[in-house]
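Is 6-diazenyl-5-OXO-L-norleucine placement plausible here? Inputs below.
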Amino acid sequence: SYAQTNPIKEDGNNSVTAEMLNQIIENNKKYRNEGEVANYIPELSKVNPEYVALSVVTDEGKIINAGDVNQKFTIQSISKIIALMIAVEEQGEQKVFSKVGYYGTDKPFNHYSNLETDKIPLNPMMNAGAILITSMIEGTGEEPFQKILERIKYITKNNTINYNKAVYNSERETGDRNKGIFYLLKNKGLIEESEESLNNYFKQCSIEVTAEDLAKIGFYFAHQCQRFDGDIRYQNTDMARLIQSQMLIAGMYDFSGEYARIVGLPSKSGVGGGIAVSVPGKMGVGVFSPALDEHGNSVVGYKMISDLSQILGLNLF
Ligand code: DON
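Reply from A.M.:
I modeled the complex. Tokens:
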């Protein structure tokens, strides 16, 4: 296999270098032709499909970057793990998981027909569960969104982060399916308020980040909610376990099972082309490449993570 034949591994020197990351980008960027940039949200289709970035935060909190690491893109579904964390902090694990399940699925991220027969959404990573989770965060108006934004700024130590208003408006104008899901949840008595929480969901998806920001998010959950610079304000082992287990079973949607078998690492993707990876107790990885496969996961992103995992022997299993 690649891992056995890779000289980096055979030398016993498995520390991450920028050259290693650049090589992984070079080996994989051609695969962008196998995917397509998300176009169901018109504003997302405008992104340049050539962008590619790979970032690692090592176990010592050192940042190693390659490719278009300054390029911003929308965080999309990766915001769901931050929202879940805040909802659990405020409401407790038991209450949150009385309203949403923790099941894997063979259905796409915007699947909703199970709401007709099941009492609650399948998990907090699919849209139905995620919209419900955002509605559980306390506060009126934009406050729940602001909490998500503030926590992302804290984790990344990047105060320039904000949401992209054009993407937000585009999501809102064309998000009929999410609107439908919201009203089904409301009809079932799981959500009470007006469309504010739906708008907060669209806003959280529109937050702009870089691959480095995602690597820091991955690191945070890999290190019991400790920040890459050692700040332990939110340190919480149970929370890190909860979030990473969700990432493992549902973070890549209906591809999660195959991904767990091949890569074996808790990961969360978004249709902006980003993936955040947590290597428990070790590193955080962030990737960006906008062309997506049929599941809504970055094609090149997935291949780069597979290679990095093989070279460094990161697979948990
Ligand atoms: O709900 C949506 O349609 C998007 N704003 C977010 C979905 C997403 O990122 C799914 N990902 N792979």
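Short version: Confidence is low (pLDDT under 50) at residues 1-13.
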